């Protein structure tokens, strides 16, 4: 049975989980991955250029297989063999394992960019579907072209166009020309976000309420004073 002392003396190898999560996605095969783990283990122990014969024995592989794995990883850019000076001033070869993480970083960045593009395309698709749903019919080629112009030429965001559509629907104006006027009005006011649209709507609503209050006040002021006649006591009449 393995004792605690033997367990502790065996040491540990710390490797980012990114490597475990993405090694297949960046093109590493299982045997290449296991070989890389052996190199990480040796470097964690301070051996920057481990004996491949020892690794072959640990993995239960022939030396030729290990050399082949190394050549594959070097030729495909997962490992670099570099020469550097040690603390004693001696030149020595080392395995630079950083490229494998650079490949993971590139993969994650590319995946994120692809997801952004996919999300944008899905948003555009939903935008067109939203117009057809509100209009109750398929869009004409001219209408499709106009929406495309809003997106690609005027650079209105899908969210802003969707808000303009909702504004038009609330006013029962099922016309792209009407929506275009809304977008132009917002552009002149530098309105580009949902929050700014809501603030502008609130401002207009408050202004309408204030105008109604003022109009009611003017109406009351213009009315003639009505004399109340006290038919029981005429002297008390105003």
TrEMBL record:
Composition bias type Polar residues, residue spans: 212-222
Region (Disordered): 212-238
Residue ranges of the TM segments: none
Domain DnaB/C C-terminal: 129-199
Domain DnaD N-terminal: from-to ranges: 15-114
Gene3D superfamilies (alphabetical): DnaD domain-like, Winged helix-like DNA-binding domain superfamily/Winged helix DNA-binding domain
Pfam families: DnaB_2, DnaD_N
PANTHER family: DNA REPLICATION PROTEIN DNAD, PHAGE REPLICATION PROTEIN-RELATED
Family named by the database record: Belongs to the DnaB/DnaD family.
Protein name as annotated: DnaD domain protein
Species whose genome carries this gene: Enterococcus faecalis
Lineage: Bacteria, Bacillati, Bacillota, Bacilli, Lactobacillales
